[in-house]
Hints:
Layout: H1 2-14, H2 19-49, H3 59-76, E1 83-84, H4 86-102, E2 115-123, H5 129-137, H6 140-146, E3 153-161, E4 164-172
Helix pairs in contact: 1-2, 2-3, 3-5
Amino acid sequence: xxxxxxxxRTLLEKWGxxxxxxxxxxxxxxxxxxxxxxxxxxxxxxxISSGNPVQPPALEQVRTDVVNKINYERNLKGxxxxxxxxxLHTAAQTIAQRNADSDSEEKVPDPEGxxxxxxxxxxxxxxxxxxxxxxxxxxxxxxxxxxxxxxxxLGVGVAYKDERAWIVVEFTKPAGxxxxxxx
Length: 183
């Protein structure tokens, strides 16, 4: 994390931002995932208090929040952020929808040996990045996968059925370094 902070500080100074401002910018960057989650919570609570039924969070918001939370956790460990990839989002979404339709988590084949797939389901009222990522991080095996240092990209899929959310997170790794995992 110190290396990333030093690189960011150097770039900010190069662009004319004073070091005191660089610390402020770093603080704001760390707060973005938390602010996104708080906004989702506020909208949900507002819907409940106004008498509107709770609706599942929008797919794009969950994707963005999960990607931000994963990268936040990785940055805390000094790892680089992973970029989301549309193709992986699409593949993860397809699996999540099949899981929701069948009420089970499918085994995902990986003939090239470069894919890591994490899966879970939970009540859609708990469909937020903190709950999703923390559940993965509470499993030693899944935490090791999320915090591995050789990922190229990630994708997130979320499907809803009967007030449950089916979550799929896919990571790509260079061929030959992959381990598949499902929860």
